[in-house]
Specification:
mainly alpha, two-stranded antiparallel ribbon, 37 helices, 68% helix, 3% strand
């Protein structure tokens, strides 16, 4: 199963090149991908006498994110629909798209990717992995519905579907986590085999999951997104909105019904909203004049019908539900394809502009009639088999109180009557011999579909009839799932084309007679019945909700983001003060146990930190304030060292040093003191906020430490670092092994921040590496790099191009001596960090400080000579090395970011053991170096260029050079 998903994913990636090479005929090649997966499903159909086939791929076991897949009867049924209809839709696309455009090339890949995501969804046994595939279908649906991105209607429909289904998906994720934490397992099979006991907690979790299911399957009140999604191309409607995506919610309800169908909250949502959806969706379809919208609201109605059947929790009703799921996929996908052919052949889908089309396109009319008969539930169709079974099993079910069961069955009968009516209206509106001389408004454009275009819907229509004659055999395939549900003393309702005379037959006769009568009455009195718009329109409610959200966001922004930095900071800090304290004092708190200073030295350092913090608030000189703030950081580093944390102390000192340099680079462009008009003086409010924020941090930290109820984790880190991370330095092993995922996230944020700062500084375009001496010579004399020969040796080559007033011989000479030492120290910290204080982060900071020294002593040209590489290249290389190391372990069957020891025997060095985490640390090293280089390049070298820009004439302090003639 995992191989099938990977194969489909690879197929999606190679689809665009195939489409570009073969044009629209490439859809035939793409159709082979889901078809091959369908063959695998059929060949590996679950044996009812054997346990379901399972596979497990270890991914993130600590988060229970292993990829567990399980192939049972329900998964197999949905897989056939997903892959089978997907193949036919791709064949249909080959003739639906007349010309090959760029968007069409990616369209085929998105369809294949959607098939992979849906297949992964129905075979996932891990609920968290199921959620990942669930959201993947949402994103792919957004892309497919928004195919015509230049149209406002397409963008609105795609956004609407994305917002609604994403909201439901987030609610479902909350329910999944609640159930997983309560049961201790995130496996669906475990959850169903041993469901948690009832209670408010379980009800809330189940309701959250159902919100996701009903939003995905367009159940009231989330039904409005599906008709809006008809802005998508017809193949999308035929696949996503008939056979695949909208079935995800139905599948989830069917999967969870054995465990939770007896809950009151479940019955109210699934049965109540499902029955309401069937009636409301069917009635809305009778108002529409667009063929796709008639089918769209009809799909909403049928989804409500299926939701009720699979959600009752009775084995017999579940058989009817599965039958309707299969029948609906066949007839609705077929009818959507028919509408696409009509639109393609006539240029319209409006039933007011269509007449006598059945006379001009008889084969198409015949295909539509057969599929429509199945949708209406007429005999000799699989839709008839499903409805007959539904009527009989629902009336006699023991899962509900008899009066409730009878009421639900009557509502389903009413919905089926409406279904017959809108089916008749669809066929009559598209193909009827209406009083109109011309079949369409543009007869000249009418052209019949070719055989390849008509074949996919014809196959589905024929299957809808043929399958009814094999209903018993198909029912045998469904029964293993039905057996997981209680029978309540009744035998499982077997599928059959004819059950004999009884209540289902009476209901079917009522459906035909009443449905035909309803169609005729509405046809005659349509203008009076549908004179006024519906009193409550979900689309308008959706728009009103978005407007309310916009208004609320504007009000909040207007009152909190006034363009004043002090006000913005006050709001942020006040929120950060109040919320934690309110939660802290409303919850349960343990008694505090405060520990004082251990040595007098710690008191001295603490007093210095407090004095520096107070001095920062009263100093007006910007540079002095920055240096005093740095003093507080160095004080914290000293405390780390006193408490026996050399790694933290080293990192704190290095970070503080680099931060000071960054501040100085910025401050040199600002006045030494703030203008008098900006001086705020002492403000009581600001002082109180500052003191309250500091007190909040101390208080929350003390209570957090007091809340520890078990042995501190730090006591086990040393042994764990040596045993699992193969290193004696627990801090470094923590960063590059135990918590390496956090490190990847943090360095990614650093790269984004560096890119943002550089983009703001450069504004017009990004510059590459810092300038070099040869660049200056080339700009000055127009000569090549090879013709430049330095006449004499200097302490720093780049300093020759600086203004003599800014040069310091002592600093240049010191830099010439100290720079190699810092580089060696940087490399030592990098290699020694796994077993001693240091690591890639500390080593990168030391190398960064070495570059800072070269820049301060020699200027921007010296920076270019020190490291003539673009900062983006260094950053990208570091991120690539870290990411490659993270995933490399997957190829040997180990979890991501697993470490291993490589033992080497070298002639000179002897036995050497290299931990693979060293390569991950190398990526961190390069990222830190690239970050410092980017800061120096943007806040340093680039601003230096801006200062020199107005200057005309020769460069200052030109180097004496000899040019070879």
């Amino acid at each position: 199963m995992i191989v099938v998903m990977i194969a489909l994913a690879i197929g999606a990636l190679v689809s665009p090149p195939i489409m570009k090479a073969c044009g629209t005929r490439g859809f035939y090649i793409l159709a082979l991908m889901p078809a091959a997966a369908l063959v695998w499903v059929i060949c590996n159909w679950p044996d009812p006498h054997e346990p379901p086939r399972t596979e497990t791929f270890t991914w993130v076991p600590s988060l229970q994110m292993d990829i567990d897949v399980r192939f049972d009867t329900l998964s197999a049924i949905l897989s056939v629909l997903i892959l089978g209809v997907g193949s036919l839709v791709l064949v249909y696309c080959a003739n639906y798209f007349d010309i090959m455009r760029r968007r069409v090339a990616t369209f085929g890949g998105e369809i294949v990717a959607f098939a992979a995501a849906m297949f992964g969804l129905v075979v996932s046994d891990n609920t968290l992995v199921l959620y990942v595939f669930w959201e993947a279908t949402t994103i792919l649906s957004f892309m497919l519905v928004g195919f015509n991105m230049v149209r406002a209607t397409s963008r609105r429909a795609a956004t609407q579907a994305l917002l609604v289904t994403t909201f439901g998906g987030l609610a479902m994720l909350v329910g999944i986590i609640m159930l997983g934490e309560r049961t201790g397992s995130y496996r669906l099979s475990d959850l169903i085999a041993d469901p948690p006991t009832g209670g408010v907690y379980i009800d809330i979790a189940v309701v959250c999951i159902l919100v996701g299911a009903i939003s995905k399957s367009a159940i009231v009140p989330f039904h409005f997104w599906l008709p809006g999604a008809m802005a998508a191309p017809t193949p999308v409607s035929a696949y996503l909105h008939a056979a695949a995506m909208v079935k995800a919610g139905v599948y989830l309800v069917a999967r969870l019904a054995p465990a939770f169908a007896d809950l009151i909250s479940w019955q109210v949502i699934v049965l109540g909203l499902g029955a309401l959806t069937m009636v409301l969706g069917g009635w809305r379809s009778l108002r529409e004049r667009d063929l796709k919208l008639i089918l769209a609201f009809g799909t909403v109605s049928q989804l409500g019908f299926m939701m009720v059947l699979v959600g009752v929790g009775d084995a017999g009703v579940a058989m009817a539900g599965l039958a309707m799921v299969v029948a609906h996929a066949m007839f609705k996908a077929c009818l959507f394809m028919v509408v696409g052919i009509i639109d393609h052949s006539t240029g319209t889908r409006d039933i007011r502009l269509l007449a006598r089309l059945g006379h001009r396109l008889p084969l198409l009319a015949g295909v539509a009639a057969v599929a429509g008969a199945s949708m209406a539930g007429l005999p000799f169709t699989f839709g008839f088999v499903g409805k007959e079974t539904a009527f009989g099993s629902m009336w006699a079910t023991g899962a509900l109180d008899p009066s409730v069961a009878h009421l639900v069955d009557i509502v389903l009968l009413i919905g089926s009557v409406i279904t017959f009516a809108y089916t008749t209206r669809f066929l009559w509106g598209a193909f009827g011999r209406k009083v109109r001389r011309l079949p369409t408004r543009a007869v000249a454009t009418l052209h019949p579909p070719n055989a390849a275009f008509l074949a996919p819907p014809a196959v589905l229509a024929v299957l809808g009839v043929v399958s009814s004659f094999f209903a018993h055999q198909i029912g045998d395939l469904f029964e293993p799932y039905a057996e997981s549900l209680p029978t309540y003393g009744h035998e499982i309702e077997h599928l059959a084309l004819w059950h004999g005379f009884g209540l289902p037959v009476v209901f079917s006769i009522i459906v035909v007679v009443a449905g035909a009568a309803l169609f005729l009455v509405l046809r005659a009195r349509r203008r009076k019945v549908f004179k006024n718009p519906p009193p409550l329109n979900a689309d308008r409610v959706y728009d009103a909700t978005l407007r309310l959200a916009d208004s609320a966001s504007l009000w909040v922004t207007r009152n909190t983001q006034r363009g004043s930095l002090p006000i913005t900071q006050a709001v942020i800090l006040s929120t950060a003060i109040l919320f934690p304290l309110i939660v802290l004092f409303l919850g349960t708190r343990d008694a505090l146990s405060v520990r004082g200073f251990d040595t007098p030295e710690q008191v001295v350092v603490g007093v210095l930190i407090v004095a520096a913090a107070i001095a920062t608030t009263v100093l007006r000189n910007r540079l002095a304030s920055t240096l005093v703030v740095g003093l507080t950081g160095y004080g914290c580093g000293a405390l780390f060292a006193m408490y026996g944390a050399p790694d933290l102390a080293l990192t704190q000192f290095l970070v503080e040093s680099v931060t000071l340099v960054v501040f100085v680079l910025v401050l040199r462009k600002l006045p030494s003191e703030s203008a008098q008009r900006h001086a705020a003086g002492f403000r009581l409010g600001r002082a109180l906020i500052g003191l309250a924020f500091g007190a909040m941090l101390v208080l929350v930290g003390l209570y957090a430490a007091a809340a520890r109820s078990t042995q501190p984790l730090q006591l086990r880190l040393g042994d764990a670092a040596y045993e699992f991370g193969h290193g004696a330095n627990a801090v470094n092993v923590l960063l590059v092994d135990i918590r390496a995922w956090d490190t990847i996230g943090e360095v990614s944020v650093l790269i984004v921040a560096a890119t943002g700062v550089a983009s703001m500084v450069f504004r017009s375009r990004r510059f590459g590496a810092a300038p070099r001496i040869t660049d200056a010579a080339r700009l000055q004399a127009g000569i090549s790099d090879d013709d430049v020969v330095s006449e004499r040796t200097t302490w720093l080559v780049g300093s020759e191009l600086r203004d003599p007033r800014h040069r310091t011989m002592v600093l240049e000479a010191t830099t010439r001596v100290v720079f190699p030492t810092l580089v060696i120290l940087s490399l030592y910290l990098f290699f020694a960090g796994h077993n001693a204080p240091g690591g890639g982060f500390a080593g990168g900071l030391v190398m960064g400080l070495a570059l800072v020294l070269r820049y301060l002593a020699g200027g921007r040209y010296e920076l270019g000579e020190a490291l003539p590489v673009e900062a983006g290249t260094v950053l990208g290389a570091g991120l690539l090395i870290s990411a490659t190391t993270a995933v490399a372990s997957l190829f040997v069957g180990a979890p991501a970011l697993s470490s291993a020891v490589i033992a080497l025997h070298l002639p000179v060095f002897g036995d050497i053991h290299i931990v693979t985490a060293l390569f991950f640390d190398l990526g961190i090293y390069l990222i830190v170096v690239g970050l410092v280089l980017d800061v120096l390049r943007s806040l340093g070298a680039r601003l230096d260029v801006a200062d020199d820009a107005p200057t005309t004439g020769p460069l200052p302090a030109q180097p004496q050079q000899e040019v070879r003639k």
